[in-house]
Amino acid sequence: MSGFEAVVFDLFGTLVYEFSSADWDAWFDGSARALGVDPVAFRREWEQTSVERQTGRLGDMEQNVRTICGRVGVRLSAERVAKALEVRMELYRKCFVPTPGALDTLQWLRAGGYPTALISMCAPDTPALWRASPLAGLIDVAVFSSEVGLRKPEPEIYLLACERLGVEPAACLYVGDGSYGELSGAAALGMHAVLVLDPAVDPRTIHRPEVEEWTGARIGSLEEVRPLLGGGGQRAVPGTGPR
Asked: Where are the alpha helices (DSSP H) in the chain?
């Protein structure tokens, strides 16, 4: 694994923590209580509108909440909407923290002259959180699905990142946790895709939407990106798939 010109990262579960399944479930219950709506109906509508939200078609998060509650027949006060959005922010504050090795790895890549990109499947509140994080200044190109109207594993979202980086897909190392079929999508364009998943973490306890069964290369932490680029240390294990 050598000759890469750039590195492209996923966000949740890669550079910052993914939500735990327990926290994700609790967020639905807490939001429904704040809004005064049936939690089952709220979750159903939230999940059914995921594509619209991730591609920015429902507007900002306040508009998302109001749209969903309108679909379940509930009219909301501004106070209830604000409470629900604060419940969501509490969830995000808990997980929007650099994963082990994220800062060091990005600093190493920058010092080595490697261009970097981020491709995130996300709701409209994620870009502002990213831009306020200590990681943002270490990534050259950030592509958010809610801003560009594209989703993983659509080829266009990867090609947009490559275009902005000024590199061909085959010259990119792609690192992600495997949600939304992202690794297969990257590999289909010629990127070298690598799964990053801490072997000490039970993946069943993590919220990993549309996770794929990946049988390609994998690493256990972001520190292992360096040797893939000639920086020493352990190399990715080929063909082992997720544990």
From this structure: 21-35, 39-48, 50-54, 61-71, 78-95, 102-111, 126-131, 145-148, 155-165, 182-188, 225-228
**Which amino acid makes up residue 38?**
D
- HEC letters along 135-159: CHHHCCEEEEHHHHCCCCCCHHHHH
Name residue, tokens 């090609």: 159
The whole-angstrom separation of Cα 99 and Cα 107 is 14
pLDDT values of the chain reduced to their tens digit, one per residue, 243 residues: 468 999 999 999 999 999 999 999 999 999 999 999 999 999 999 999 999 999 999 999 999 999 999 999 988 899 999 999 999 999 999 999 999 999 999 999 999 999 999 999 999 999 999 999 999 999 999 999 999 999 999 999 999 999 999 999 999 999 999 999 999 999 999 999 999 999 988 988 999 999 999 999 999 999 999 999 987 544 444 443 332
Phi, psi for residue 117 in degrees, rounded to 5? -135, 160
- What is residue 59's three-state secondary structure? coil
Distances (CA, A) of 156 to 36, 53, 139, 140: 39, 18, 20, 19
CB 158 within 8 A of CB 191: yes
